[in-house]
């Protein structure tokens, strides 16, 4: 799908990979509907994207009403919705048992609700709008890009909920793509390795350092948000990407511990 004149909703657009993805799609000519809980940081998009092509929607991907309002606003303001990029996510961590205390179920529920249920909430509501689009080349009506994680395969200490949520994103990619193929909507997920964003800033220093030293093949550094955004743009523009999860991790591979 060519990006010029298209409309994209980007969740988690206030920070990190979502912020870079919103800016990258806008630079290629798309109008952006940004959805994030963090209104203050999301407002920084106004410095990067002209007002006529930007709509900021405060809300949670885990809330049906918030996402429904955002996709309705997208169509009301820009006439259609063609692209959805799911970047919203949290990485709250806890050990399965820590000092005798079991993993807090509230933490599990929060991480699954945002990372997995929230991703699917956006997929289902955005796809419903895409089905109303006129078919383009190949009969294409829309593209959905989700964010999983290398943690789906290589979760760290404390990441039971996070890794499960990301494995769920990978798991839903193919069946959702099967559901939507007859309507001309593609579904692709990205599994990033370690990227230099606010989410990772909260990681214990020796964790990120040990991941880079133990697992990242080359280049031995964290990924940059712009590198993630470049892959998002490529997926949208290349119609032959569908129903798959693409690792973007500098060849990171599992280590024994
Ligand atoms: C086909 C194959 C593909 C393979 C692909 C591989 C890709 C590469 C990996 C993917 C990376 C993806 C990144 C991800 O999507 C984004 C994020 O996950 S960002 C946030 C990540 N956060 C974490 O991973 C940390 C989660 N854990 C914690 O925060 C803590 O462990 C805890 C659960 C809150 C508990 O902490 P504590 O109460 O302090 O107790 P601990 O016993 O855990 O800590 C003691 C000590 O050990 C250090 N430590 C903790 N976890 C690790 C670890 N995983 N590795 C090394 N060291 C660890 C901790 O910092 C403490 O150190 P101290 O301060 O005591 O010296
Ligand atoms: N940074 C990494 O190393 C890495 C690696 C693999 C996958 N990921 C995934 O990439 C995505 C983006 O992460 P990031 O590194 O840019 O983190 P980040 O913390 O910089 O950005 C995450 C954004 O999501 C928003 N958000 C959180 N909960 C929300 C909700 N309920 N509704 C709407 N917005 C919400 C936050 O406000 C924030 O702006 C996440 O899904 C994360 O799990 C990150």
From TrEMBL:
This is NAD(P)-dependent dehydrogenase (Short-subunit alcohol dehydrogenase family). It holds the Pfam family adh_short. Residues 6-193 form the Ketoreductase domain. Keywords: Oxidoreductase. It comes from the Bacteria. GO terms for molecular function: oxidoreductase activity. InterPro entries: KR_dom (IPR057326), NAD(P)-bd_dom_sf (IPR036291), Sc_DH/Rdtase_CS (IPR020904), SDR_fam (IPR002347). SMART domains: PKS_KR. PROSITE patterns: ADH_SHORT, PROKAR_LIPOPROTEIN. Belongs to the short-chain dehydrogenases/reductases (SDR) family. It comes from Quisquiliibacterium transsilvanicum.
